[in-house]
């Protein structure tokens, strides 16, 4: 699994950080998403998939 | 609102007697029968009422759908909200790219990290309010003794608004969320509130503190990046949204739990993980933003077998999405141990609630603290005599008489 984000679309809702804190964080200054692990291990794939689904701005892409 | 139809039923928020937690009976059956239907609004215009979860998520994320309430066909809530829409000119009623530019002035103040760091202070406020409630009762009105002062104190500290002015801004804010307010009363309340907040932000330019409005004052007003009017409108949005919503979730959520003793016991005795899930479930089940997310289509959009035409008004009824059996099993059941995270209580799309993680922390701390402090908590009046907020922009209870 590869994780990529469109930071322009990110609205800083923080859903991804709530669901998959191992993989996502937020910039302190504006809450925009930071990807901590672009190729996360299998054990967090389910939560990363949920984070992508929950993202209100559809800013997370998985491949 | 490009067409009118005598057949379209009127928009209503009236609930069935004895079912204060369920969506209005006028909309029951729409999910299965007519997922996209027409409703008539207070001013005689019509709007598309979107029922299904998937259709709402698609529309709310769609850039061809506008949140700009200055558009002629925008489905406003009431005459009062239409009259005050100039004051509503804040990121919540802007489209991209302006929306996200403006919203990002504030997103840094609402990150998960910042909200988590507030936990000890919020717990302290909760404990003090519960101490006072215990000393002066029973009985008590849960709204005035706990549900309203808690989020009000928290948002005041976060924004840097003096809490001693709460009688003023709570009264003004109540006019703004009441769909029955006269145009005159709503305009007066709204103008007083933006004047008050404009003055406050201006004072913070020369005497800033460690709060959000001070950062707005020094980073935007003092530098000319924002006008006084823009700052005041944004402050008004954050102040009103910051306490009306969470206050009603605390009171209505408690009321709902009191009707479901097993669910209440699970929340009272649950670990933080269960409580966090229970908060999502209460947000889903109650959907206090019962007026729906209001939009205008900017292009012809095919959705759910229907074509919404450019210029048409759209209402995404979150209360129906949150009862959609395609997403939630036995959706009419309150089950605090279910996976409810996909609920649309905070909306969806780029406008999804900015303060949602503040609300989560407040609610995760408030329910268990209240239920543990008063294990014998119960309504002091039959459920049928509780005044529910049917006509307010945010649903809930006007008061919740409790004893213990």
Automatic annotation (TrEMBL), chain A:
Segments forming domain 4Fe-4S ferredoxin-type: 1-29
Cofactor(s), by name: [3Fe-4S] cluster
Listed GO MF terms: 3 iron, 4 sulfur cluster binding; electron transfer activity; iron ion binding
Pfam families: Fer4_13
Keyword Transit peptide in annotation: no
Record's keyword terms, sorted: 3Fe-4S, Electron transport, Iron, Iron-sulfur, Metal-binding, Transport
Function: Ferredoxins are iron-sulfur proteins that transfer electrons in a wide variety of metabolic reactions.
Protein name from the UniProt record: Ferredoxin
Automatic annotation (TrEMBL), chain B:
Location of the region described as Disordered in the Swiss-Prot/TrEMBL record: 1-27
Gene3D superfamilies listed in its UniProt record: Cytochrome P450
CDD domains: CYP105-like
GO MF term list: metal ion binding; monooxygenase activity
Presence of keyword Metal-binding: yes
N-terminal signal peptide: none
Comp. bias regions, Low complexity: 1-17
Recorded superkingdom: Bacteria
Entry keywords, A to Z: Heme, Iron, Metal-binding, Monooxygenase, Oxidoreductase
Pfam families: p450 (PF00067)
PROSITE patterns per the UniProt record, alphabetical: CYTOCHROME_P450 (PS00086)
Annotated SUPFAM superfamilies: Cytochrome P450
Family to which this protein belongs: Belongs to the cytochrome P450 family.
Name of the protein described by the UniProt record: Cytochrome P450
Species of origin: Streptomyces doudnae
């Amino acid at each position: 699994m590869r994780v990529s984000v469109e930071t322009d679309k990110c609205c800083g809702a923080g859903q991804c950080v709530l669901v998959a804190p191992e993989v996502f964080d937020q910039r302190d200054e504006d809450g925009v998403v930071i990807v901590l692990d672009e190729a996360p291990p299998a054990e967090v794939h389910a939560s990363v998939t949920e984070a992508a689904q929950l993202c209100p701005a559809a800013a997370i892409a998985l491949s | 609102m490009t067409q009118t139809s005598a057949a379209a039923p009127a928009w209503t928020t009236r609930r069935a007697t004895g079912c204060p937690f369920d969506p209005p009976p006028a909309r029951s059956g729409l999910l299965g029968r007519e997922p996209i239907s027409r409703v008539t609004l207070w001013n005689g215009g019509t709007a598309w009422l979107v029922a299904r979860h998937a259709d709402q998520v698609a529309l709310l994320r769609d850039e061809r759908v506008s949140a700009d309430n200055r558009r002629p066909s925008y489905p406003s809530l009431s005459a009062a909200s239409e009259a005050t829409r100039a004051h509503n000119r804040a990121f919540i009623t802007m489209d991209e790219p302006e929306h996200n530019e403006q919203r990002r002035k504030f997103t840094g103040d609402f990150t998960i990290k910042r909200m988590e760091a507030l936990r000890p202070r919020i717990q302290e406020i909760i404990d003090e309010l519960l101490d006072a409630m215990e000393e002066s009762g029973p009985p008590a009105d849960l709204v005035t003794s706990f549900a309203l002062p808690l989020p009000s104190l928290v948002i005041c500290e976060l924004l840097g608004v003096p809490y001693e002015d709460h009688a003023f801004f709570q009264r003004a804010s109540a006019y703004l969320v009441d769909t029955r307010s006269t145009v005159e009363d709503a305009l007066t309340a709204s103008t007083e509130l933006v004047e008050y907040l404009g003055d406050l932000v201006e004072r913070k330019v020369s005497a800033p503190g460690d709060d959000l409005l001070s950062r707005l004052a020094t980073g935007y007003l003092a530098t000319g990046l924002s006008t006084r009017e823009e700052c005041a409108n944004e402050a008004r949005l954050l102040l009103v949204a910051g306490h009306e919503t969470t206050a009603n979730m605390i009171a209505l959520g408690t009321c709902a739990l009191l009707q479901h003793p097993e669910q209440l016991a699970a929340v009272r005795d649950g670990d933080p993980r269960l409580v966090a899930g229970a908060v999502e479930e209460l947000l889903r089940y109650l959907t206090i933003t019962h007026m729906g997310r209001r939009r205008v289509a900017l292009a012809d959009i095919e959705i759910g077998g229907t074509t919404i035409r450019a210029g048409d008004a759209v209402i995404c009824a979150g209360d129906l999405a949150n009862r959609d059996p395609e997403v939630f099993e036995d959706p009419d059941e309150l089950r605090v141990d279910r996976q409810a995270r996909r609920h649309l209580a905070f909306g969806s799309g780029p406008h999804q609630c900015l303060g949602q993680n503040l609300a989560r922390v407040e609610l995760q701390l408030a329910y268990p603290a209240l239920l543990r402090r008063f294990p014998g908590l119960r309504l002091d009046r039959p459920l049928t005599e509780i005044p529910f907020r049917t006509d307010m922009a945010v649903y809930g209870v006007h008061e919740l008489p409790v004893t213990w």
